[in-house]
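Researcher: Quick test of sequence recovery. Tokens follow.
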């Protein structure tokens, strides 16, 4: 179930992106005479992204956020569920029609160097989406658009003939962003776009993404394990754990008054840039390892690491819904009304 804030926005028309009960199951072979094991990478995820906004998806490594982002971009087919783009159902379309429907969705990958063709000049890399989707344009106009987009992301025209290995990591990611935005894009899926960069360069890339969003009106799905980065760019946040969304709402509600114990632990783990405050606080630290996605716990998947777990948590899976006076949706039977009772 979506949060109350999203229910209020539903009257404004169809969102740019909407998923319902989206799931991805991988079958892992065990050998010739044994049946494959099911790995539930993403389980029943329902999200909504309005035009011109940014949806942040955050969680630990292995929670399924990258698999989700690849499904949204059309790179990985969904096992079940619905993906709607501007009201059009795309998940069930044949491959050719799905590719055509998703031409306005592009992706910025985690590793800037490995996502760029090392043999191509950066101007040609940025022009490539235009060569594929806008063959109606003359070559000269496509080249001009590519150079303009490079300049827009901070790459001078004098560098257009260079190859990726001649650029820094930050410059390579700017080329990746320029390529994603070159062809009338409406939605950009950013999968850990700054995790491979230095901290100072991370801030530059995030600021660039925000500036481009304001000037071009694009929407972002921003995937990261770094809560501080997600907080800096997101309007809404979905917190994932072991393939499921456990808390979902506006960035302000989720970060300032987290209701789910897992979200609270993530917020506590973020460093505070004040030595006195950082030394005095007592953050809650999760114990134990993430359960295997091939054998998730019954009921609430977080219960094996949760300090609030009770018998009900093992027997009944909590629904993702608003609870008490909380504006965001929370998948926890014992979510506090004010977000304070669960914390030390």
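Model:
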């Amino acid at each position: 179930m979506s949060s109350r804030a999203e229910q209020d926005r539903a009257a404004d028309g169809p969102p740019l992106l909407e998923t319902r009960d989206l799931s991805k199951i991988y079958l892992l072979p065990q050998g010739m005479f044994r049946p494959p094991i099911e790995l539930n990478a993403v389980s029943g995820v329902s999200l909504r992204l309005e035009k011109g906004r940014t949806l942040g998806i955050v969680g630990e490594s292995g929670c399924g956020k990258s698999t989700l982002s690849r499904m949204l971009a059309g790179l990985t087919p969904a096992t079940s569920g619905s993906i709607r783009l501007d009201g059009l159902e795309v998940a069930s379309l044949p491959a050719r029609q799905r590719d055509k429907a998703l031409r306005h969705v592009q992706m910025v990958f985690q590793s800037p160097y490995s996502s760029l063709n090392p043999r191509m000049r950066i101007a040609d890399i940025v022009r490539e989406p235009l060569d594929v989707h806008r063959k109606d344009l003359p070559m000269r106009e496509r080249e001009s658009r590519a150079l303009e987009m490079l300049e827009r992301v901070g790459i001078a025209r004098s560098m257009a003939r260079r190859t990726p290995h001649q650029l820094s990591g930050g410059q390579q990611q700017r080329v990746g962003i320029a390529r994603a935005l070159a062809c009338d894009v409406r939605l950009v899926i950013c999968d850990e776009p700054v995790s491979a960069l230095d901290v100072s360069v991370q801030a530059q890339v995030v600021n660039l993404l925000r500036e481009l969003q304001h000037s071009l009106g694009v929407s972002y799905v921003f995937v990261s394990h770094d809560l501080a980065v997600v907080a800096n760019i997101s309007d809404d946040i979905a917190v994932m754990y072991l393939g499921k969304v456990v808390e979902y709402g506006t960035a302000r509600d989720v970060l300032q008054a987290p209701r789910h114990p897992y979200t609270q632990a993530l917020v506590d783990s973020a460093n505070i840039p004040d030595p006195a405050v950082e030394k005095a606080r007592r953050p809650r630290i999760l114990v134990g390892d993430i359960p295997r996605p091939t054998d998730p716990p019954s009921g609430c998947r977080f219960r094996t690491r949760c300090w609030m777990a009770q018998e009900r948590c093992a027997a009944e899976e909590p629904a993702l819904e608003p609870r008490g006076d909380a504006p965001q949706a929370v998948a926890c039977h014992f979510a506090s009304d004010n977000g304070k009772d669960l914390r030390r």
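The two ends are 29 Å apart (CA to CA).
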